[in-house]
Design goal:
With 261 residues, the chain is α/β, with parallel strands linked by helices. It has a domain of 180 residues: Rossmann fold (3-Layer(aba) Sandwich). It contains nine helices and ten strands. It binds adenosine-5'-triphosphate and magnesium ion (MG).
């Protein structure tokens, strides 16, 4: 690999190539958490749900986040997506050569950033009932101003999740597994940097959950996306590149850093 000087990097025409050096040089950092804390006040006492998290996650990784109910998994995903703001600390996402500290943005700016760069799969699908399957998938493209690619790309994604013949159907006519497959297509439609999934199989039976998980992994991996998934299912962890556990506000059992010292 050829090393580039700072000036060469600054003048580079393709901003996706260079990012800050990570502890793992072959994988660029996509997300950096620094002193990230979320505290809630309860009965006059401060309760830290996330306590000074410091981590880096890399482009193309599948990160699996395990932890008991109430351990803070959704809280962490919501801080990474900018849906929620931390009590202190920062989340930085590297968009090509540009570092975007999303915790320094206003709520409106975070919404714009999320629309452009993040895809989210929720436990309860969250499809818009008044829009057809196709319209649900083209909506993020429309919001991100990507009109050109819209319909063709959305139809391609719906073909990949096996729903090409249902594009004009409304979500209430679909099974849970089918709705989640639409949600996966929607999460990838605008070509996000990062896909966040919060218990995407939590509301599905085992067999349907397995199909949905397989599709989510295939589609994110084929597109080289980073997938950050909170789950209760330990078997999902077997397929992940890194497994983290949230315990008492801390991220522990980081298998990647343990394995690599
Ligand atoms: N608005 C709030 N006010 C006070 N406490 C809150 C608030 N939102 C979340 N919490 C608390 O933060 C903790 C973490 O919640 P979170 O939803 O992140 O857990 P989780 O790991 O996603 O759980 P589950 O597996 O059940 O989805 C919980 O104890 C919850 O009660
Ligand atoms: Mg949760």
């Amino acid at each position: 690999m050829t090393l580039q000087t700072t000036a060469q990097v600054a003048n580079h025409q393709e901003p996706t190539l260079e990012r800050p050096a990570a502890t793992q040089p072959s994988k660029p950092v996509l997300i950096r958490l620094e002193h990230l804390s979320k505290t809630y006040a309860e009965a006059g006492q401060a309760r830290a749900v996330l306590d000074e998290l410091n981590r880096e996650f890399y482009t193309g990784e599948f990160v699996c986040l395990l932890g008991k109910s109430g351990s803070g998994k959704s809280t962490l995903l919501n801080l990474i997506s900018g849906i929620d703001a931390p009590s202190s600390g920062d989340v930085t996402i590297y968009d090509g050569a540009q570092a975007v500290t999303i915790t320094a943005l206003s709520e409106h700016e975070r919404t714009i950033f999320r629309r452009n760069h993040i895809g989210i799969v929720f436990q309860f699908f969250n499809l818009i009932p008044t829009l057809t399957v196709l319209e649900n998938v083209t909506l993020p493209l429309e919001l991100a101003g990507k009109h050109q690619q819209m319909r063709r790309h959305a139809v391609e994604l719906l073909e990949r999740v096996g729903l090409a013949d249902r594009i004009n159907t409304y979500p209430d006519k679909l099974s849970g597994g089918e709705q989640q497959r639409v949600a996966i297509a929607r999460a990838l439609a605008h070509d996000p940097l990062l896909v966040l999934a919060d218990e995407p199989t939590g509301n599905l039976d085992d067999e349907t959950g397995e199909t949905v998980l397989k599709l989510l992994l295939e589609l994110t991996r084929d597109a080289g996306k980073t997938l950050f998934m909170a789950t209760h299912a330990p078997d999902v962890a077997e397929q992940a590149d890194r497994v983290l556990h949230l315990v008492h506000g801390q991220l522990v059992n980081d298998q990647l850093s343990t394995a690599q010292g």
